[in-house]
Design a protein that fits this description.
Length: 100
């Protein structure tokens, strides 16, 4: 836990736009975690039911384990903002690399 009086840490983040190709998504996720030591990687897009929507599949392919329940919670929260969100979102909640 952080010290209450300590100044907040600045987040160092960089967005990336990559094609909806499973191999490229997997390679990018591995690079971010293994080479750049990212502790949190957020993905968006490619989560619908279309055949080209492979982001959850790519995430699972490189993950060490899933995090049950997290995706369901995010779906519930999303429903408050977009009532049809449940129809177009496949969450993949997983961990890879060293424990935080």
């Amino acid at each position: 836990m952080a010290d209450i009086g300590a100044p907040p840490r600045r987040l160092n983040w960089k967005p990336r736009l990559i094609p909806d190709e499973q191999a490229i998504i997997e390679q990018t996720l591995c690079e971010l975690v293994d080479e750049m030591s990212c502790h949190l990687v957020l993905t968006t897009g490619g989560t619908g039911p279309a055949r080209r929507d492979v982001t959850p599949d790519a995430t699972l392919a490189v993950a060490d384990r899933e995090m049950p329940g997290f995706g369901e919670q995010m779906r519930q929260i999303s429903l408050h903002f977009v009532p049809t969100a449940i129809l177009r979102v496949r969450w993949r909640d997983s961990q890879t690399g060293a424990d935080p």
